[in-house]
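Action item from last meeting closed. Structure (383 res):
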């Protein structure tokens, strides 16, 4: 995936050609707008249409639903290439997650209804799990939906929702049986343009990810048709979530890998040009040793992530291994980028330098998708 490393076994010539196409698209249609998106706090909805026209949004979606039918490894390529470009403003990973939910659990009618619009960029998706009083404990969600004459009446709120300001198709985690624990959890697809009682809160101010809209969502007697419950069967949500979380956590790892490659490339370029005491920063032994350490961390991570990609491709990535991938890669991402920033000296603290933005953007990777502390707990349960 990166020019100075061996091509992974799962990556075919078709993947490589696709990666080049995505790289060109991001360079021309994405990166030139990042500063403006950071200032306004969200990616222009029109960009999603451009991505759809470029064939990026539907790579993993079967042809019968308007996609390319190429498989999830092509979404792997896009996820990596976005991170390699050095910015996480675009909520593409959430798109891939929602797509996998619909593909895995949607009825044929639901797939025909939503997937073509996700391919084209007409639909921008979000996954609404987290609540103000609940983080990783999905069994304890308070947002609830009561069925009345073929319509769910939904009340509650969510927070920290990626694409929260722009999404018009939200996969919402609700309780359809409030006292049934995991058995009472369901996934309700909310088409925001067609419901009453839906309200967006403020676009939250964050340390990093400035161009990615992250919002509160409120549901006040929101009415959603019964046929919008994913798979049409209530009470399946917790099972659906647990089976799809490995892909979400692997996607975080893939992003971490690309981001480390970006940071190391930026740092090598800087230290080979910047001079101090009559020689380049790179000529100092400390610099070379530090970069050797970061390169080793990166390559160890790369080997494990590629192994996990193969497991995901084959449909056998388990929750424990995905948890390992998530905590390890995000931990290494933060360590590597921190060490890279140090080699920039004072300039590393200036936001005009991409390494500073990378440092701020990386920190949340250890939090969302399940905190790294939760990941370790899940791993420990398997011992």
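Sequence:
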């Amino acid at each position: 995936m990166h020019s100075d490393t061996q091509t992974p076994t799962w990556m075919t010539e078709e993947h490589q050609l696709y990666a080049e196409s995505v790289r060109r698209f991001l360079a021309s249609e994405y990166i030139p707008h990042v500063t403006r998106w950071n200032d306004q706090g969200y990616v222009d909805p029109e960009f999603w249409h451009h991505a759809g026209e470029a064939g990026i949004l539907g790579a993993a979606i079967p042809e019968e639903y308007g996609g390319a039918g190429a498989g999830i490894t092509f979404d792997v390529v896009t996820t990596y290439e976005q991170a390699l470009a050095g910015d996480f403003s675009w909520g593409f990973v959430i798109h891939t997650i929602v797509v996998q939910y619909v593909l895995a659990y949607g009825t044929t009618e639901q797939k025909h209804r939503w997937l073509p619009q996700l391919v084209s960029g007409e639909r921008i998706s979000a996954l609404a799990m987290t609540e103000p009083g609940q983080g990783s404990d999905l069994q304890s969600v308070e947002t609830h939906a009561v069925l009345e004459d073929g319509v769910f009446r939904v009340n509650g709120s969510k927070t920290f929702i990626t694409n929260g300001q722009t999404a018009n198709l939200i996969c919402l985690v609700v309780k359809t049986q409030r006292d049934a624990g995991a058995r009472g959890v369901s996934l309700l697809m909310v088409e925001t343009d067609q419901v009453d009682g839906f309200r967006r809160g403020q676009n939250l101010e964050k340390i990093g990810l400035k161009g990615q809209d992250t919002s509160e969502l409120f549901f006040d007697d929101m009415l959603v048709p019964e046929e919008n419950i994913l798979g049409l069967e209530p009470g399946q949500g917790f099972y659906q979530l647990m089976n799809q979380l490995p892909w979400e956590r692997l996607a975080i790892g893939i992003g971490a890998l690309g981001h480390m490659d970006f940071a190391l490339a930026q740092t090598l370029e800087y230290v080979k040009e910047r001079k101090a005491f009559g020689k380049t920063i790179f000529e100092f032994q400390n610099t070379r040793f530090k970069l050797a350490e970061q390169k080793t961390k990166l390559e160890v991570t790369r080997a494990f992530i590629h192994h996990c990609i193969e497991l995901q491709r084959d449909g056998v990535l388990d929750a424990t291994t995905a948890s390992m991938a998530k905590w390890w890669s995000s931990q290494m991402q933060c360590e590597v980028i921190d060490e890279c920033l140090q080699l920039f000296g004072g300039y590393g603290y200036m936001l005009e330098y991409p390494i500073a933005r990378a440092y701020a953007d990386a920190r949340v990777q250890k939090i969302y998708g399940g905190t790294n502390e939760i990941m370790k707990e899940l791993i420990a349960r398997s011992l």
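Note appended to the action item: The mean pLDDT is 95.
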